[in-house]
Amino acid sequence: MQFIRLIRSQRTMKGYRFSIYTGKEKSPFERYLDIFKEMLLYTSGDVDEAIDWLRELDKQYDISGDPSYKTDQFLEDLKKRGLLREEIRPDGRISQVPSARMEQLIRQNALEQIFGKLRKTPKGNHKTKKSGTGDEMSENFRPYTFGDSISSIDWNMSLLNAQRNSEIENFQIREEDLVVRETFHNSQVSTVLMIDISHSMILYGEDRITPAKKVALALSELIKIRYPKDTLDLLVFGDDAWPVSIGEIPYLQVGPYHTNTVAGLQLAIDILRKRKATNKQIFMITDGKPSCIKEPDGTYYKNSFGLDDYIVGRCLNMAAQCRRLNIPITTFMIARDPYLQQFVKKFTQANKGKALYVGLKNLGEIILEDFEKNRIKKI
């Protein structure tokens, strides 16, 4: 939907002329901030490294578009706006780290990048016979964003905003005046998102962990805004598996780990057993084969060469166990190796779940599309 702005002009037949509303132009700070949020994900939250990257980029591309606005001024503005906080390192030095507000902006940015693209796709990833986005009206309002249904706009509140923001003699409704009343579904879904942090996630010079982090951040923000009754738990798996919080996601780093898929699934099941929702599901983002399991005596059995029958058998048993517990697993395979895809196919058959073979570019769009479809089926 394109918004048209009324502009009072020289006298014409009706006294107005029309032009396409292009939106508010970004300030130098906003231009810097867009890139800085991306850099924080790539540097796993290292502010100093992200600032160093900004300096180099500004030398080549003039990020702000204003020669008088440079990186040092942007850094000061970040501190004034409360987007950075000071933290004392173990060696006694004081360093700058992202504040809670900055972490929220990173989540919102991931949601806009991934879920925003999903809603604008011409393929229609949100096909459903149900109208609207939910069953219950919420007391919360949020700004209108591209892709929202016109019927969801609260016109009373929007007109009030326009009245406040317009001059008396030049009343107009602008895009930033529009607000939408939130709705949510009556059903509840508990989701566990598993993220592979084994060494192969950065192997061969290809960064796969950053897109995975973006997906986790976008999912958390989506559920928080659109599905407040739902739960999302996050865990990472390498040699072992352990839960992580939303706040830890931007700082995740790949370790010198093998891939213990069994440990990740065991932890996911334990988490979902504690959830009261009837509908439960697991999303697993991985780019490699299972190569490690932990034995009952505490030792690790590892094999990085080929698909080990013993490890594969344990993984298939876990997939079947999830099926018996009515927990579908959706595996997002971000490697194109046909040899590994055969394992994923067997794993999916054992669970009666889903498998999507995707590249890094489409990872976020597909995982969010599948999340929406799973919800629709379970309402």
TrEMBL record:
CDD domains: vWFA
InterPro entries membership: vWFA_dom_sf
Origin: domain of life: Bacteria
SUPFAM superfamilies membership: vWA-like
Gene3D superfamilies registered for this protein in UniProt: von Willebrand factor, type A domain
The protein's name in its UniProt record: Uncharacterized protein DUF58
Species of the source: Schleiferia thermophila
